[in-house]
Amino acid sequence: MTEVGGWIPESWLLALALPGVLPAVAALAGLLVGSFLNTVIHRLPRMLERDWRAQCTELAGEPEPPRAARYDLVAPRSHCPACQTPIRALHLVPLLGWLLLRGQCAACGTTISPRYPLVELASACAFVAVALRFGPTVECVAALVITGFLLALAVIDFDTHYLPDQLTLPLLWLGLATSLAGDVRSAVMGAIIGYLVLWSVYQAFKLVTGKEGMGYGDFKLLAALGAWLGPAALLPIVLASSVAGAVIGLLLIFFFGRAREQPLAFGPYLAAAGWLVMMAGDALPGGLLLGPPPALWSLDP
User: 137 - beta bridge partners?
Assistant: First the structure.
């Protein structure tokens, strides 16, 4: 692994080397990132739907509706969806704000979904795990970036069955860009093979059944994972995600009465499998390989 001392002050590295400091910093960073991811998870699908409706209106030749108030990841400021009351800064503190409010809006008492603190907690735990796994290295920084993207994509796909290009494509291009410091060939091969594997499965399933088994967002997500982790990581990712998806799908059918025809989001399983495969390796062979990969991940026979 490669130390980050080339671009982080030596005093900071010494502080991070103290027992418990790196996990504490990672936990704090994870909480803050998780708070931002909550905004992305909630607003990005709605931003996309607004854009799609506007495009449909334009294509249909209908009169343009009155311009709506600005709605993006910055504006409007966080507010209660029930009473529209802006949320005080203290109540926006990750995890603590939800606990102080006891899960209710301070103005109207409407229940605040526990999803918000759970995402923040999941982000913090994942960041700590990454920090303990990779230490103060360049690989750790890259793994934290991947972790944030995968968490947002998993929850959005679970909620909406969307895997937005606004997240999958930056994750893909970042993986290819970081390969300039490592193994470009492995990153490019991983991206190409990752996309083609699920694209081929999609086409075969459609040919046999006449139905679409998954969306193009799944192809792009696996391509992004291939760019970061290399082509040798794709098989365990696909196998793990497919088995998990099949098992959970069957459990939902038999124990909760879920209809067989009801679509099941595949993105969360891809994201989880990709993260676990990343954590199982000693490096990021696709995009940020700054040393020889372990034998498990090597392309050589």
Answer: 3
Residue 234 lies in a domain: yes
Per-residue pLDDT tens digits for 127-164: 999 999 988 888 888 999 999 999 999 999 999 999 99
Higher pLDDT, 300 or 267: 267
Closest alpha carbon to 142 in 174, 167, 190: 174
Tally of CB atoms within 10 A around 152:
25
Q: Are 129 and 235 in the same domain?
A: no
DSSP 7-55: TS-HHHHHHHTSTTHHHHHHHHHHHHHHHHHHHHHHHHHHHHHHHHHHH
The answer on 167 and 261 residing in a single domain is yes
> Three-class SS of residue 182?
coil
Length of the chain: 301
Give pLDDT, residue 258. Answer: 65
Q: What SS3 state is found at 294? A: coil
pTM score of the predicted model: 0.87
Omega before 294 cis (within 30°)?
A: no
How many Cβ atoms from other residues are within 10 Å of residue 173's Cβ? 13
3-state secondary structure of 288: strand
Strand partners, 3: 137
Instruction: Give the residue with greater pLDDT, 210 vs 227.
Output: 227
What is the domain range of residue 118? Answer: 19-136
CA 99 to CA 121: how far, in whole Å? 12
Query: pLDDT digit string (tens) for 92-132?
Result: 889 998 988 888 888 888 898 999 999 999 999 999 999 99
Q: Quick one: which of 150, 168, 172, 131 has its CA closest to 287? A: 172
The DSSP symbol for 183 reads: -
